[in-house]
Backbone:
């Protein structure tokens, strides 16, 4: 059982936050011990699948299920495309963002690119908070070395992805999206394929990312582009009164 | 089978919808199955049905049931 003080959510959302992650070996007693330690205003618990004993405990303690978090992995083998996908992919290019591009990205995010995450769906938070949280997140990750890429078709920027190499020979492209003004048919696949291309060109071994079961189109795109599901956690949330 | 029947069948079989769903309200993302993955499947089904090859512009402009008819006409296929 791991408990994280998600202190960054104080800046992002204006509240204290703790995140608890249970693994397959944890018991009900372990979970109860962890719950007793939580004092933050916003509490997030991630449970392994098929653990009804743990699910019952969190529900009895006032937590609500909000999403499944899927870890998806691509081994960067056999990803050549043909036919329609190749034609579409060949018409789209990507390049690293400059400062102007990054400001454009932040403006697009603030318009609301992502509408299925646990913050956006939680009526405790505003849509503006949900959007601004992504901006803060990207600012933090860019300061730690992540790179931002814009994706273009016919010189028009239609979306973006973030690229972050991990120290085990892989990468963690933790965020990618199409701008609301550019929801063009078929481009979800192309956007993901550009990430695969970039990882391959860098000679990396794998891509590992997390997607939400709340976003079925994104789940389908990952499966169709050759990702496999490595793990699923059920995510529960709870808001409490300030205790300290 | 008429061109319209072939065209309609591509939608019905790709998206698992009913004939009465085929109207001007059927646009990209208006139903759960017409997402990015569904769109590529639809384009493949239509190309195969009419033995044509869409260019990239057509694939990304194909944003509705009605718009598709116009794009097929551009590719020499009359659907009516």
Residues:
């Amino acid at each position: 059982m791991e408990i994280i003080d998600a202190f960054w959510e104080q800046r992002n959302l204006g509240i204290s936050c703790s995140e608890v992650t249970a693994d397959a070996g944890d018991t009900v007693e372990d979970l109860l011990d962890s719950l007793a330690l939580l004092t933050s205003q916003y509490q997030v618990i991630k449970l392994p699948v098929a653990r009804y004993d743990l699910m019952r405990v969190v529900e009895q303690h006032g937590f609500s299920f909000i999403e499944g978090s899927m870890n998806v992995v691509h081994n960067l083998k056999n990803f050549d495309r043909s036919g329609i996908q190749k034609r579409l992919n060949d018409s789209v290019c990507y390049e690293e963002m400059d400062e102007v591009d990054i400001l454009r990205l932040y403006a697009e995010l603030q318009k609301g690119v992502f509408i299925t995450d646990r913050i956006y769906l939680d009526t405790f938070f505003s849509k503006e908070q949900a959007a601004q949280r992504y901006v803060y997140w990207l600012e933090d990750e860019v300061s730690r070395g992540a790179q931002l890429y814009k994706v273009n078709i016919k010189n028009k920027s239609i979306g973006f992805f973030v690229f972050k190499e991990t120290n085990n020979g892989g990468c963690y492209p933790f965020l990618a999206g199409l701008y609301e003004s550019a929801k063009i048919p078929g481009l979800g696949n192309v956007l993901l394929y550009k990430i695969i291309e970039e990882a391959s060109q860098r000679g990396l071994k794998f891509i590992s990312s997390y997607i939400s079961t709340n976003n079925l189109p994104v789940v389908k795109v990952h499966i169709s582009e050759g990702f496999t599901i490595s793990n699923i956690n059920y995510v529960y949330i709870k808001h409490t009164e300030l205790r300290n | 089978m008429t061109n319209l029947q072939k065209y309609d069948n591509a939608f019905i079989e790709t998206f698992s919808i009913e004939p009465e769903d085929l109207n001007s309200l059927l646009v990209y993302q208006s139903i759960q199955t017409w997402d990015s993955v569904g769109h590529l499947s639809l384009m493949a089904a239509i190309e195969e049905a009419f033995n044509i090859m869409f260019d990239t512009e057509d694939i990304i402009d194909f944003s509705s049931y009605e718009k598709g008819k116009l794009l097929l006409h551009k590719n020499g296929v009359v659907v009516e």
